[in-house]
Amino acid sequence: MSTRKNITATADELFYHNGFDVTSFADIAKQVGISRGNFYHHFKTKDDILEAVIDLRLAKTRDMLRLWAEGAETPLDRISCFIHILIRNRREIAKYGCPVGTLVSELGKLDHVSKSHAATLFTLFVDWLVTQFSDLGCEPQDARHHARHLLALSQGVSSVAQALQDDVFVDDEVNMMLDYVAEIARTNSLKRKS
Amino acid sequence: MSTRKNITATADELFYHNGFDVTSFADIAKQVGISRGNFYHHFKTKDDILEAVIDLRLAKTRDMLRLWAEGAETPLDRISCFIHILIRNRREIAKYGCPVGTLVSELGKLDHVSKSHAATLFTLFVDWLVTQFSDLGCEPQDARHHARHLLALSQGVSSVAQALQDDVFVDDEVNMMLDYVAEIARTNSLKRKS
DNA sequence: GTGAATTTAGGTCGAATGTCCTAATTTTGT
DNA sequence: ACAAAATTAGGACATTCGACCTAAATTCAC
């Protein structure tokens, strides 16, 4: 892997685990195994690293969403993929929260220029979910509503899970989210028949 | 107001607006209007200030919950008070997120000793909501489930609202939460009749 | 009123930060 | 093979941080 990508991937992990502001050049350099001075050749400022990290996350998210769209047959299965990240990443979430939500929150408090850039990560999920709910037969405004609701729920579950450290809670909420989507699919199919 | 309380209140605000780690002694001193050196007499370390801030928030939260319990006639009205903080504090939430969730998240990433102390802020809300749902006629495990679900939703709405900056979204979610509670109250009253 | 206790201001300290520079080292193009 | 370019290491820099100290100012007790 190129050094630049190596730096970006390491910064991505450290920003997630420890926070953007707390993570120093020295921390990243130590983990990558290069000298601090080497940074300036790849990234002029720390903000440049942040931009690269956000771009990396955008790319990884797009890949993940595409994989879900291709891998699952029905919109319902695809939405289930989204919901199940809460279980698949439960260990990391319990420790560090949601990588998107915590970054947006921190950048918001720092009033950082990249906060809107980070927020586009959210819209990536919203847009994808809107597509799925539309494919499920929802009207545009309903699809948007359901998509945002699901995103908010996943954020909230991450946040509370980090505080309470309770696996059962996550399972319960995931089941509720699955029921929520199944109910929408059911009513939509009824509507279609009438 | 005493200097100590003045420091604590100012630190409370700055920790919320800018984050704990980012906020420096100098920042607090400047806003309070005292010299930096004066701190050491009131708080030995920055962590001591954090402890005092968490205690302050615990006290303020307890007062607020007591006020809601006394001010509202029915459990349903009391739960509505909780839900409506999302609207009452919408400006601050859109800027800085939820004061509890963002603090727990930051302390979790810092692996700070006070993270569990901060997490008790969450349990304060959970316990209070459990009481309300129990008064509404819910079984203990149901009450706990509903309480945590509502808390997670409020957290998620705060998080997504900060990213999307959309007032309509908050209104929609608040209405959904109110419907959720109303539905529980309705089914409970039906159960009671049978 | 006066001595003791509390509170305050201002400065110092080492450590750590982001940024930047320079000189080696390695890689690349021909 | 060799010059040019890219990459790397290590250190210098001004600044800021939490922590700590001392002395002046203020408040309090009697």
UniProtKB/TrEMBL annotation, chains A, B:
Q: Which domain of life is it from?
A: Bacteria
For this protein, the DNA-binding region equals: 24-43
Q: Name one Pfam family in it.
A: TetR_N
Q: What are the protein's UniProt keywords?
A: DNA-binding, Transcription, Transcription regulation
Can you provide one Gene Ontology molecular function annotated for this UniProt record?
DNA binding
Transcription regulation as a keyword? Answer: yes
* Protein's UniProt keywords contain Cell membrane: no
Q: Which residues form the HTH tetR-type domain?
A: 1-61
Protein name as catalogued: Transcriptional regulator, TetR family
